[in-house]
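Why predict the complex rather than its parts? Because the way molecules touch one another can change local conformation, and only a joint prediction can capture that. The input here totals 314 residues.
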Amino acid sequence: MAPDPNSFLPLPQAQFHVLVALTGGELHGYAIMQAVETSSDGVVRMGPATLYGTLKRLVDGGLAEELPHRPDTEDDHRRRYYRLTGLGRSVCGAESDRLAKLVTFTRRNLRPRLT
Amino acid sequence: MTSHERIYRGLVVLYPKRFRAHYRDDLIQSFTDLVGRDGRARAWTRTTVDLAVTVPRYRLETIMNTNQSTATLIVIVIALAVAGVMSIVTGVGPGVIFLLVAVGVAVSQRTQLARSIRTPGPGLRRRRLRTAAILAVTCVVTTTLMFLELMNDEHWHGGKLMLYNAVFFATFIGAITYFIVGLFTPRDESPSNPTALPA
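Output of the joint prediction:
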């Protein structure tokens, strides 16, 4: 039986950012670092070991997987590519929903007259 | 390979063996990409912070890993305890932190540590804790004697001081070791008890 996506929540910040980056498609390590930086407006800047430690956790948890082949033949053949698994996609969606509810709740409390 | 890459490659050795065996090339490749995009200074700033945060974290995670062999675990706990005591006594380094980490590792891995303790007969836990108490009392007495002598005789010769220090360290470390081991020895050590851990 597949694990419940909600059992992974709340996701650590680094894991969530990497999952979000991988929603854009198959990426290698450095491209994930860049995607995380872009998606967070430069606020989250991962170092190499933080990234690969996070990827290791995601792969061990079944949320991401390493591709057996290199999708871009012109790219450096030593680069390893990663992609989301079905579970990873569900967990990423569940975490997004959780955060969206949190944002709604926060906005309602901060600006009670507008809601 | 540039000199910066060589330095980073050398620093990657600080990571746990399994992690670096799997990700060494990827780490170096990412570092090279960072240097190429951001320049050496910015890449090193980011990577230094990364190293400072992740090396101790991944090392500690490896220690906490249940696959860690019990013998290694015991060595780590004792080494941390000794380093802590030495650090507190000499006033060099974060001794309390060493001791806290030693206790943390011992507590988190208590089941594995308990399995390593032989339980050949009843009353072992009591005997171990009693030994710890005797060693602690000896340690206190030695320290008191040392201070009394220091107050009465200002002209200490090296041999006497070394002897006192040796007794102090031996009894202190022994007391801590016996206390931790005794603490994790099962209360009921009867061989007929089916729940007792195997010797």
